[in-house]
Amino acid sequence: MLPAAMAAGALLYKWMGYVTFLSPYLIFVMLTITYCKVKPSEFKPGRFQWMLLLVQMVLASVVYASLSVWNRTLAEGVFICVFIPTATAAPVITGMLGGSISRLATYSLLCNVFVAVVGPLVLAAIGEHPEMTFVESFMIICRNVFPLLILPIITALVMERFARGVHDWLMRRQELSFYIWAVSLFIVVGSSVSFAINKFTPDKTLTMILLAAGALVVCMLQFMIGRRVGRAYGDTVSGGQGLGQKNTLLAIWIALTYLNPISSIAPAAYVAWQNIINSWQLIRHGRKSS
User: Fold this and answer.
1) Rounded Cα gap, residues 74 and 260, in angstroms
2) How far apart are alpha carbons 14 and 187 in whole angstroms?
3) Angle subtended by helix axes 248-258 and 265-289, to nearest 10
4) Contact call for residues 80 and 94 (beta carbons, < 8 A)
5) What is the Cα–Cα distance from 52 to 49, expressed in whole angstroms?
6) What is the signed CA dihedral for 219, 177, 290, 271, rounded to 10 degrees?
7) What's the whole-model pTM score?
8) Using CA atoms, how far apart are residues 80 and 83, in angstroms rounded to an integer?
């Protein structure tokens, strides 16, 4: 279903402007369903989460330092694919693959808070628009990230307390989040293809190819390193998804706002790469389970 959703989004990219506004609402519903399965006592950052965060920040620093001496636009695009926090939808895929939703949800929250605080300083140092103040940057990132992270958790907790029947019904219907994720993927891929086509000019061909290729390399690298970190803590799936599955919509927005706009091609390509890997993992997991 995920490859079909991606292909449909790519083919129907001209009409994505009519449905793009649905993305945050779909993600909200999807995460609310997922969090109905998680107990509040399970949200506790531990060594697993701190180690993943350390690896992510070190890798982001190495990537930028290595590429910036050669091509700054490429460095910015690939860097943002690593530095950006875990996707808000990552716990959904993690649950489908048999990983720990609570572990990944905790890391997602920790990572997003860290990037919201540190991000403005980093982006002011390397970005194209250093005139933005720390407070302005912080508030913009908070406004785009925090509601999608925190409100679904609050909603799930409120339902558990005051609408237990609805909460329990959603807890037993976790497969619904998969179908909502497929619709979200259709919209995200279509929007990314539309963006890439609108920004294309012949003189930018090589740079765009390098950005897409760089996104593929760091995507595979992050899934691989994340799984190795996760294996050390008994949760390979959560490690891979935590480091590899990124909030690409936020990455594209940050690249357009702070960096060279062309660098946003990297996170736009990352949308396809990470979901091809997710599709392969889900197919493989399904075959093993059957």
Assistant:
1) 10
2) 11
3) 170
4) no
5) 5
6) -20
7) 0.77
8) 5
* DSSP string of 215-270, one letter each residue: HHHHHHHHHHHHHHHHHHTT-HHHHHHHHH-B-HHHHHHHHHHHS-GGGGHHHHHH
Please give the DSSP secondary-structure letter assigned to residue 85.
Answer: P
> pLDDT tens across 101-147, in order?
888 888 887 887 788 778 777 877 776 655 566 667 667 666 765 67
Asked if residue 96 lies in contact with residue 89, where contact means CB atoms within 8 angstroms, the answer is: no
Tell me how far apart the alpha carbons of residues 99 and 182 are, in angstroms, rounded to a whole number: 19
Please state, in angstroms and rounded to a whole number, the distance separating the CA atoms of residues 74 and 64. Answer: 9
Q: Which of 127, 91, 136 is nearest to 110 (CA)?
A: 91
Residue with the two structure tokens 């050390």: 232
Cα 30–chain centre separation? 14
